[in-house]
Amino acid sequence: MKSYSNFIDINDNSWLKKSINLLKKDGVIVLRGVSSINNINNINSKAKKVLSYPSILGSIGYNQKDVYKKTYDGFLLGKEVVDIVANENIIDIVEKYLNDSISLTEIYLKKDLGYNKVYFPYHLHTGNELNINPINSFGCGAMLYLHDTNIGAFCYALGSHNISYKEINESSDGLLSSSKNKLKIKNNLHRINGKKGDIIIFDERGYHGPEQPVTKARTVLLYGYQSIKASKNSTRTEIPILINHLNGLSVRQLNTIGINSNSRKKYEDYHLRSFGKQNTYKYSALFLKILIYTNLKIKNLNFKIKNRF
Question: Rounded to two decimals, what is the model's pTM?
Answer without folding.
Answer: 0.91
